[in-house]
Amino acid sequence: MTGAGGFIGSNLVETLLKQGKEVIGIDEFNDYYNPELKRKNIANFQNHPAFELVEGDIQVLDWQKLLQDVEVVYHQAAQAGVRASWGQGFRSYTERNINATQVLLEAAKDSKYLKRLVFASTSSVYGDAETLPTHEEICPKPVSPYGITKLAAERLCGLYYKNFGVPYVALRYFTVYGPRQRPDMAFHKFFKSVIEDQAIPVYGDGQQTRDFTFISDAVAANLAAATVPEAVGEIFNIGGGSRVVLTEVLDTMEEIVGKPIKRNHIEKAMGDARHTAADVSKARRILGYQPQVSLKEGLFQEWEFIKSLYAQK
Fold this sequence. Notes:
The protein has helices at 7-18, 35-42, 63-66, 90-109, 145-164, 186-195, 215-227, 246-257, 281-287, 295-309; strands at 23-27, 51-55, 72-75, 116-122, 168-173, 176-177, 200-203, 209-211, 213-214, 235-238, 243-245, 263-266.
């Protein structure tokens, strides 16, 4: 598991350990956001007897040794975030999203026992999709440098599958949220602002829509992608099954926190898609994917997590 200390990675590791699996977790704990938060993410299973933590950069690790007895690789590590991918920051996106993935694929093609490589992709590859809800056959048109690098990595997986038989599956996540969500992501920022009694920043007019996916549904999709035989070589949308306008999300948050939320409208962000909506019928058909958690229930769980994270020391 790469990116084991991250939001989705740590939740996935925890679930695998509960299922009795042995997990090697890889993370370099870089400073894209506070590494202490990532250390907190893994704190309650770091000493689990079936878990081994390897700290380091994907590009310089001894993959031959690491993959010796491995059957499934979950490649969750990435340089995330749409807005930071412009300008000076771009190089870390090419390094961590494209080059690191290529190094992993090179090792995977020579790995004896590998049955599956599950690649964490993103709805950002679609950009401003012409068709909503968006299905997997639609031509990707990323509107951010981040989306470009994730699409390149996804295409590399396809090449290694076609030429070397690397058994990959790509999951295009649509805005995953829930406990341990990254601090640069909207819901985390919003709830933190509520705690600090600050106005929350709303990009543009607040009428943009998103398909939000609760973390446990994203984890379930990964587990299915790693086991269903028909999934090999396929790309799947993983969404929450409901498209919501941002202002409605804020109304729901107000219900949960029990007070009005101050809003500060700021300029539309470069590279943000206006609307996202996942057609998950392929994932439903092949992976048996069925989102279980409603937005309100998911937001409630995230609010509980954020409150405990920022509890007054």
